[in-house]
């Protein structure tokens, strides 16, 4: 019999790639999404239920109607500057709604849980690459809302039969190489998307937020992971839990950092457009450099990334943005 899984936020950017891979792998998928940033056209497999995680009654009904073998929880708000401005909204949507979902899992006896966390839980890191045991000192409400969710999941797992995998994503970019799905949210301000949008003149000029960081060229350094590889990590995590694996936290990145200026140079080279760039002050809550140590996920999940190349990340993003 097909395994049925619940995917919250499955109409969003990352969730929709995971839904597509789950569908291709033969899972029966139910997506629960309020469409605040997601789109129904991104859901290529399964059933889409439009609903908000804050609506606990609707959530219970969904759990009662289906027998889920696992929950994959993507739904969240994820802009760092917005979280600085509206922290309560972030604690409500990210932390409280994770609690709502776990309550349903508890009452309905679902005991496998995969959670979308973030490198933002590490904050200003003292040493790169960051391992899963590095100190977690988030420096913005977004990171804190996610770290609190991790603690809730861990505390509940310690007191129950729940087994979890927490995936801490580094900087996610790229799109489906077949061009069917990609980043659609108008709110998304990620560097590679913004640079591609500038290359195709959707944005007049690209902003660099700070060039006075303690990095070789003064701009922030990040570890960019292709969304397809990140999606496959979720299927690996699901199989791991289904085989009875212990609860784990994994970094998801390629263990390689690129500065903002390096990324812009690749986007300019690949697009062939020398678009305008302006330097503006640092944004509150942006650390200088964050790169992942990915040894643990490689070893324990035997994760096999296929797109760990900045040019592939840029070219799939550019191709996607050009067709929007
Ligand atoms: N994109 C990144 O670079 C990145 C990095 C680290 C972690 N993450 C995490 O990955 C997850 C997915 O991010 P994404 O980039 O796909 O974002 P996204 O905005 O494209 O997707 C989020 C989805 O959740 C839905 N949603 C939000 N709040 C909801 C609610 N209360 N009830 C029901 N649905 C709701 C939205 O409509 C959307 O479809 C998030 O948890 C985010 O924190 C993303």
Automatic annotation (TrEMBL):
Enzyme Commission number(s) of this protein: 5.1.3.2
GO biological process: galactose catabolic process via UDP-galactose, Leloir pathway
Pfam families with a match to the protein in the record: Epimerase
Entry cofactors: NAD(+)
UniProt KW Isomerase keyword: yes
Keyword Transmembrane helix: no
Pathway per the UniProt entry: Carbohydrate metabolism; galactose metabolism
GO MF terms, alphabetically ordered: UDP-glucose 4-epimerase activity
Keywords: Carbohydrate metabolism, Isomerase, NAD
Catalytic reaction equation(s): UDP-alpha-D-glucose = UDP-alpha-D-galactose
Class of this enzyme: isomerase
Superkingdom, taxonomy of origin: Bacteria
Domain NAD-dependent epimerase/dehydratase, first and last residues per copy: 5-253
Subunit structure of this chain's protein: Homodimer.
Family of this protein: Belongs to the NAD(P)-dependent epimerase/dehydratase family.
Name of the protein: UDP-glucose 4-epimerase
Organism: Brunnivagina elsteri CCALA 953
